[in-house]
Write a structure and sequence with these properties.
Length: about 180
């Protein structure tokens, strides 16, 4: 069965050399978007990373309630181990194809901070952002996202967004 590993990370910023992962979430679906499993964790990080967040990240991660949860989060190595267990359960015989919005940025952070997880991922990715660009620029179709900036919510939005774009494709899936 074909499956996708939808994932989203929240970070203290976008510079992988200065910032860290503060939230991890994943949903595994089949190609009909049926959920087969999920994972979510807040990642404990030293206070200095939170103190050094830029204005945008400070505002959004505070308003979402994420900042207050970080001191009680799980240590990064524990999060990675749990995430790998989920992947091993659902993707036994093949690397996981990750899916989501702007997942190249997430992949950069995974490569630096979660090397064991990185080894379980396929080089191919299903980035909904590509669909967003084509559908908006060529066809004027735009999905209205809420952008909660919480990882699990963002994944669910990405899944709904791809389902929205798929409605415009008139193809029958092969039997």
């Amino acid at each position: 069965m074909n499956k996708w590993l939808w994932l989203d990370l929240e970070m203290t910023g976008l510079d992988v050399d200065k910032e860290v992962i503060i939230e991890v979430a994943a949903i595994i679906t089949d190609t009909d978007f049926n959920e087969l499993g999920d994972y979510h964790s807040v990642v404990k990080q030293p206070q200095e990373y939170l103190d050094n967040m830029d204005e945008w990240n400070t505002k959004h991660h505070t308003e979402s309630g994420l900042v207050e949860k970080i001191p009680e989060g799980k240590l990064p190595h524990k999060v990675e181990a749990e995430f790998c267990t989920l992947i091993d359960h659902h993707f036994r015989e093949e690397p996981a194809i990750i899916a989501g919005n702007s997942i190249t940025q997430d992949r950069i952070f995974i490569k630096k901070y979660f090397r064991e997880l990185e080894s379980r991922l396929h080089y191919r990715m299903l980035d909904v952002t590509g669909w967003k660009i084509i559908m908006k620029d060529k066809f004027g179709k735009e999905y209205g996202k809420r952008n909660s900036h919480r990882a699990l919510d963002d994944i669910r939005e990405s899944i709904e967004e791809l389902k929205y774009y798929m409605k415009f494709i008139n193809l029958d899936a092969p039997e």
